[in-house]
Specification:
Chain A has 207 residues and is an all-alpha fold. Chain A contains 8 helices and no strands. Chain B has a domain at 75-247: Sulfite Oxidase, Chain A, domain 2. In chain B, a hairpin with a 5-residue loop joins strand 2 (134-141) and strand 3. Classes of the chains: A mainly alpha (207), B alpha+beta (255).
């Protein structure tokens, strides 16, 4: 039987903000695909099931609506993450050597997973996706307001480049999602822990 | 209001006149198809054309977004300008119809004025050309995402509005076009120094496909706000909407 600690694997604020943010980001991606499909900049379009809004105006309406929800959720999460020590304790990026060691352990099936502890690869992934979403907000501002926030657009190399970066970062977030959901499928109790206040487990050493 | 060129238009193919209806019908079909697929498909069906609660929420968020955009807007912040060598060639034609459906300027064309305007006498092109002219090379950004750099010149709209005695405290400036298009902008954006009533494109008087005889060029908004083939301008406090805005394009659409 797994031993448990007193604190929850995920504090309540993290769980609430995760479940506001997750569907919101999915809405952003699907509506973003609808907007991309109106004038594809690369020789492919997203299939209809990957779009939200039905047509360009619907896609933009969803994108704009979800944007403000994500903005509020993201600000709240950043404030909480810094103030509570969540970032420093759980997500602070590890050194490259620790990442390689953990990655090797994971790939050879010797990596234990204990709820409430983030190993080096997880830290890298989660810290990475937070930075990536932050970058996505910046590229989004650059193409939403290329005049009023033109300094951001200029910093990124102009409107067409910023638009390309916005698509590239979206694909980066999509790749994170694939890895994230695969890992959740392998360790389903992590899903339960993100839903309910399950107690954290003592840190498992690599087997 | 009777317009003689309406008769000429009837003789031509009028696919563009029924296009919005066709689009609406096909979207309805998609929604009814989507309903049977359950939850997510139901959301996918929310495309601003239904009376569902989700669509109402989307409209509410868009109105909120319009207010934020109006707050972000600065009358002095300028769109990036480019050297003439940066102009995109060939420049892409874009309208809510195909290029072969472009209409010539009606022979009796005058720029009509209405609403909160002191002097509503109609204007000719010669009179517009007698006003101070301003040239710009700016990026035209389409709501679809593509963009291209063009060169336009004409009368700054703020000079024209002052000249005709328009009420600068009015909320909207609306544009009616003889190709059936319409749009509207907020007064602060109308008074922006780079908002012009363009008469020339690439140094030549506007050709019909580029919006002859006069078009709006407003680089602080998305491309669909730069109405072509203008026949009437109104200054009003009543929300005028527009061809695309009425179907769901975000109204402010500021850049």
């Amino acid at each position: 039987m797994t031993k448990t600690l007193k604190r929850p694997a995920h504090p309540l604020p993290v769980r609430i903000m995760h479940w506001i943010g997750a569907p919101t980001i999915v809405c952003m991606m699907l509506s973003g695909c609808a907007i991309y499909d109106a004038s594809p900049s690369l020789p492919f379009t997203f299939p209809r099931w990957m779009t939200l809004g039905g047509w360009l105006a619907g896609g933009i309406a969803w994108h704009i609506s979800a944007m403000w929800v994500l903005f509020a959720d993201g600000i709240a999460y950043l404030l909480y993450g810094f103030a509570s020590g969540h970032f420093r304790r759980d997500l602070f990026p590890p050194g490259p050597r620790a990442v390689i060691r953990t990655m090797a352990a994971a790939l050879t099936g010797r990596l234990g997973h204990s709820l409430g502890h983030y190993n080096e690869v997880q830290r890298l992934l989660y810290a990475g996706v937070i930075v990536l979403i932050g970058f996505q907000v910046v590229t989004g501002f650059a193409i939403w307001k290329p005049v009023q926030l033109g300094w951001i657009t200029d910093l990124l190399g102009g409107y067409p480049i910023a638009r390309g970066l916005h698509l590239a970062a979206m694909i980066g977030i999509l790749l994170f999602l694939v890895v994230h959901l695969t890992l959740v499928a392998i360790f389903p109790r992590t899903l339960v822990a993100m839903l309910a206040g399950i107690a954290a487990e003592p840190e498992a050493p690599a087997r | 209001m009777s317009r003689p060129h309406d008769l000429r238009r009837k003789a031509a193919v009028t696919m563009d006149e029924i296009r919005p209806e066709l689009a609406r019908i096909s979207r309805r079909g998609l929604i009814s198809g989507g309903l049977s697929l359950g939850g997510l498909a139901l959301l996918t069906g929310c495309d601003l054309s239904t009376h569902s609660g989700v669509d109402a929420a989307l409209w509410t968020m868009m109105h909120f977004d319009d207010r934020v955009q109006a707050g972000l807007f600065s009358r002095t912040r300028l769109a990036t300008t480019f050297p003439a060598s940066a102009v995109t060639k060939p420049f892409r034609f874009n309208a809510f119809y195909e290029d072969w459906q472009v209409r010539e300027t009606p022979p009796d064309w005058r720029l009509e004025l209405s609403g909160l305007i002191g002097d509503k006498a109609p204007w000719t092109i010669a009179k517009l050309r007698a006003l101070p002219q301003e040239a710009q090379v700016t990026r035209h950004i389409c709501i679809e995402g593509w963009s291209q750099i063009g060169q336009w010149s004409g009368v700054p709209l703020h000079i024209f509005l002052r000249r005709i005695g328009a009420d600068p405290r009015a909320r909207y400036v609306a544009f009616q076009c003889f190709d059936g298009y319409s749009t509207s902008i907020d007064m602060p954006s109308a008074l922006h120094p780079q908002t012009i009533l363009a008469l020339d494109f690439l140094g030549e008087p506007l050709a019909p496909e580029w919006g002859a005889p006069v078009r709006l060029r407003i680089p602080t908004k998305l491309g669909f706000k730069s109405a072509k083939n203008i026949r009437a301008i109104a200054v009003t406090n009543t929300y005028p909407g527009g061809y695309w805005e009425d179907q769901g394009y975000n109204w402010f659409s500021g850049s």
